Amino acid sequence: MKLKKKLIYMACFVGLCPIALMAISILTIDHFEIKIKMFYMIVLTALFMAVTTAFFVKSFYKYVIGPVQKLYKAMDEIASGNLDYSIHSDGDDEISSLLNNFDDMRQRLKSSAEEKITYDNDNRELISNISHDLKTPITSIKGYVEGIMDGVADTPEKMDRYIKTIYNKANEMDSLINELTLYSRIDTNRVPYSFHRINIADFFDDCVEEIGLDLESKNIKLNYSNNVDKSTRIIADPEQLRRVISNIIGNSIKYMEKPEGNISIRILDNNDSVQIEIEDDGKGISQKDLPNIFDRFYRTDTSRNSLHGGSGIGLSIVKKIIEDHGGYIWATGKEGVGTTIHFILRKYEEADIHEQNTDN
User: Fold this and answer.
1) Where are the alpha helices (DSSP H) in 223-284?
2) pLDDT in tens, 13-58
3) Neighbours of 166 (CB within 10 A)
4) Closest alpha carbon to 328 in 318, 336, 338, 337
5) Superfamily assignment of 199-359 in CATH?
6) Do 199-359 and 123-187 fall under one CATH topology?
7) What ranges do the domains of the chain cover?
8) What is the mean pLDDT of the chain?
């Protein structure tokens, strides 16, 4: 309002100057009729200047001062932390562009603040998950070590069993720490991918041979079928692709919950891509949980017992790796029947070499 008053005073001053000059000129005229005419002219000029001044002040305030005050108000609101205060304008002039640019900045600040809150919440949840999951094996290791120190393991057989248990629990901790390290690198896009042309049949033959021995020791039968041409190749990072398969099968083992189980790996031809399916006959996943299992920190098991531990980021790592390979992943299944993880990878074509090198 102070600026508005100043504008009125300035406009009045500018308008009164010529009127004052005309009034002074009347004093120098002796002819009465001319003085009357001059007086009427001064009155009309004054009315005209008053109307013009009012219109000018109103227009200037509406199109310049008003938006500037609106901008000033928005700056105060943002400074106080209110990022929902919008000043979007539908006009097409320079002032409207200024307001819209400021509002775009506000929206970016709001998005950034929301992302930071989400990131901080995810980090807190991750720390909580890892802390809980590390505490379980640490407590177990301490218990077995105390048993050895107190002489509970008083036979070679007991001593051997205690040491093996300690070793296995230490491996669990090492696996959790490695998973956390990988997650941190994936989350900041710092995974050092090393893409190669891979023969899909040779790669999965090696994987199945390696995985089969481990599953056999857990009374799980591995079924494998390859329905693509033996010469089919893909472009992938072998180490990260092995991690994908390992994480998926590790998740299947974790939720098998039966003395004997089955896991099937199928490779299907899908025109210009290869579809891999990893199916288990474990406890399955409810339909409401299926769309969320690849989200970070999502757990279908909320009890967080030692059997179903883990950081809750294994499948989110799988999704990220597959997407970084230009593929996509999804899950199907039924609770009490089992779960199938599907993912698609493009077949190798000569043009892919240049594309991958450019991306790297």
Assistant:
1) 238-254
2) 555 556 565 555 555 555 556 656 666 666 666 666 667 766 666 6
3) 19
4) 318
5) Histidine kinase-like ATPase, C-terminal domain (3.30.565.10)
6) no
7) 2-82, 123-187, 199-359
8) 78
Question: By three-state DSSP, how is residue 154 classified?
Answer: coil
Element (H, E) at 171: helix 156-187
Q: What beta strand segments (E) does 132-195 contain?
A: none
With 90 as the cut, is the pLDDT of residue 275 above it?
Answer: yes
The token duo for 240 is 């990260």
261-270 and 220-226 strand pairing: parallel
Q: Is the pLDDT of residue 123 over 90?
A: no
Cβ atoms 38, 19 nearer than 8 A: no
Q: How far apart are the first and last CA of the chain?
A: 59
Q: Quote the crossing angle between the two packed helices 32-60 and 2-27, to the nearest 10°.
A: 170
On whether the CB atoms of residues 252 and 339 are closer than 8 A, the answer is yes
User: Which residues, other chains included, contact 153 with Cβ-Cβ below 8 Å and sequence gap of 6+?
Assistant: 147, 159, 161, 162
- Closest to 346 measured CA to CA, from 237, 236, 184: 236
* Helix ranges, 61-93 (H): 66-79
Q: Which of 16-25, 56-65, 203-212 has the highest mean pLDDT?
A: 203-212
Q: Which of 117, 114, 113, 173 lies closest to 141 in space, CA to CA?
A: 173
At position 4, the amino acid (one-letter code) is: K
DSSP 86: -
Q: Judge residue 122's burial from the number of C-beta atoms within 10 Å of its C-beta, 0-12 exposed, 13-18 middle, 19 or more buried.
A: middle
Q: Which fold has domain 123-187?
A: Helix Hairpins (1.10.287)
Backbone angles phi and psi of 341, in degrees to 5: -100, 125
